[in-house]
Write a structure and sequence with these properties.
3-stranded antiparallel beta sheet
């Protein structure tokens, strides 16, 4: 409590009043000169303090209670709308590895390469919590994973460091398709509340989680100076060790504020015509527009289908004047032109009955013709059986006649021999 009164004196009256308060309270100086400057610069008064002087009333005219109800929040929890992993029971084998900069061994990878390799091997999700993120190489790997492999990406940044992140994004000339699977949000520290205002803290956590199974954390920030000039330690974890990072990320995401990349980078959002009005009637229509399989049904290449939808959106916006084509539109057309449309070649199928004319190809006639063919086949089989029976019968008669002739011959020879003897 004595330290709190000293902080009130610091932000309200300055450093001199802070020193006098320490002497009066008989406290040791618990802040460095750097902390004194940071605390005074981060202090902010509460917004519209006068609005709380009058009692708040509801629609019925009755005064509203200012009691805190944890189960009745006035803001919605932001959803992980791109999806999340469900690895709750088993997250793989527990592993631990330590990487440093500078490297202790020549064969050890660089800390930046460890992060880039994890991002390039991602299959399910990529979650980043960082105080500063200005490394273009790492962010380009994230963009490629979100754009080419359709991997959901969630990034949580410190509120002050998010400005430098947006500066980096503006210099990379990103388009709509590259940031469609990326969600960026900002968060502050816990803060310190006082009667006159609040001292805003900063986000000091740094970790990268991939697929809910692997994590790297430590002192390394995604900046060029941190990967080349500063000394850093990075800890690699896998298996059940990742569970606490999973929980921490979702808690930070729930208290964070949205950073709209479409608005900050001046990119037209295909999902919103105006502020608060959805551009598509449903998610099913949106999936049909970007899914190439519906182009096969319509008989048009996927690029033409998406270009047609883009023209329809421009017409519904009601812009009769043709403005100059922006950079994002040119990139969109270049992307659609690069799409490869494969023409499907179907093999020729011979008709089942070549001797029948088109007029005689009704289902009833085909069915009757099928029965005639079956009768003809049965008759041919019966004729074959009759021929076999006749062959067998003729064979039996010929064998009988042969036996009779043989017996007659032997009888004649016996009579001749008897005459000779007599």
């Amino acid at each position: 409590e004595a330290q709190r009164r000293a902080l009130v004196a610091l932000v309200g009256k300055g450093e001199k009043a802070y020193k006098e308060k320490l002497k009066k309270e008989k406290l040791r100086d618990f802040l460095s000169s750097r902390e004194l400057q940071a605390l005074r610069s981060s202090w902010r008064p509460y917004d519209d303090q006068g609005q709380y002087a009058k009692p708040l009333t509801g629609p019925s005219g009755k005064p509203l209670s200012l009691a805190y109800w944890p189960q009745r929040s006035d803001t919605e929890i932001p959803p992980l709308d791109l999806g999340w992993t469900h690895n709750t029971f088993y997250r793989g084998i527990n592993r631990l590895a330590l990487f440093t900069h500078p490297r202790k061994e020549e064969t050890a990878p660089h800390v930046k390469e460890v992060a880039r390799e994890m991002i390039q091997q991602a299959l399910k999700i990529i979650a980043v919590v960082m105080d500063e993120f200005t490394d273009r190489d790492i962010f380009q790997d994230i963009v490629d994973a979100a754009y080419k492999r359709r991997i959901p990406v969630y990034i949580i940044l410190d509120e002050e460091g998010s400005n430098y992140f947006l500066e980096m994004c503006k210099g990379m000339e990103l388009c709509d398709f590259q940031i469609r699977n990326i969600r960026v949000r900002s968060v502050t520290g816990v803060g310190y509340y006082m009667p006159s205002g609040k001292i805003k803290g900063n986000l000091a956590s740094r970790f990268l989680m991939v697929d809910g199974e692997k994590v790297i954390t430590g002192s390394y920030s995604f900046t060029w100076t941190s990967s080349h000039i500063d000394r850093n330690i990075v800890l690699f974890l896998s298996g059940q060790n990742v569970e606490m990072f999973d929980i921490e990320f979702r808690e930070l995401y729930a208290v964070s504020e949205e950073i709209d990349l479409y608005k900050e980078l001046n990119i037209p959002c295909p999902f919103h015509k105006d502020v608060g009005k959805p551009g598509f009637s449903s998610s099913t229509v949106a999936r049909k527009i970007i899914n190439p399989k519906y182009g096969l049904v319509a008989g048009v290449p996927p690029g033409e289908m998406m270009r047609w939808n883009f023209r329809q959106m421009q017409e519904t916006q009601g812009s009769p004047q043709k403005e100059e084509e922006s950079e994002s539109q040119r990139q969109l057309h270049n992307f659609l032109d690069d799409l490869v449309s494969v023409e499907q070649v179907l093999p020729e199928i011979d008709p089942p009955l070549d001797d029948m004319s088109r007029a005689n190809r009704s289902p009833q006639k085909l069915f009757s013709q099928f029965h005639r063919d079956l009768k003809n086949k049965s008759k041919s089989r019966e004729s074959v059986h009759d021929l076999r029976r006749e062959d067998v019968a003729s064979g039996e008669t010929s064998s009988k006649q042969g036996k009779i002739s043989l017996s007659s011959r032997t009888g004649g020879k016996a009579k001749q021999s008897a005459c000779v003897v007599s």
